Amino acid sequence: MSVSQLSVFVENKAGRVAEVMRLVADQGLKVVGFTIADTIDYGIARLVVDRSDDAAAALREQGFTIIDNQVVCVETGEAGADLASLVGLLSSSGINVEYMYLTTRHAAIVKVEDCRQTERLLRENGFAVLDGEDLLAMGQC
Question: In sequence order, what DSSP letters do the residues of 74-91 get, joined into one string?
Fold first, then answer.
């Protein structure tokens, strides 16, 4: 049920993230989740796209280093209360969140050590856990 997320390592210099996003756009991919974290020397752009294999191939072809991670995707709705409940549940259950960010579809991407355990916990507590197709279908007319 988990979702594929690409972590793209980029030099921390002007224009590198733009290159990544241009390559993704040139492939006609839909970006539904994106975040970037940086250090002095490099950044990590994390992407959830509709065709992660195509994105990874295009980026690797241009020399980018890619890691494909499985992450949990959970619907959050528009209200901050859902997000607070989600984080509170994970914390009180002893699940360490490595990182988390929001998508364009009122959902959160959560990187944890054990996706299956986390997904089970979330479902048992009334959260909607999404797969890639669910995530892409949200927000479509």
Answer: EE--S-HHHHHHHHHHHH
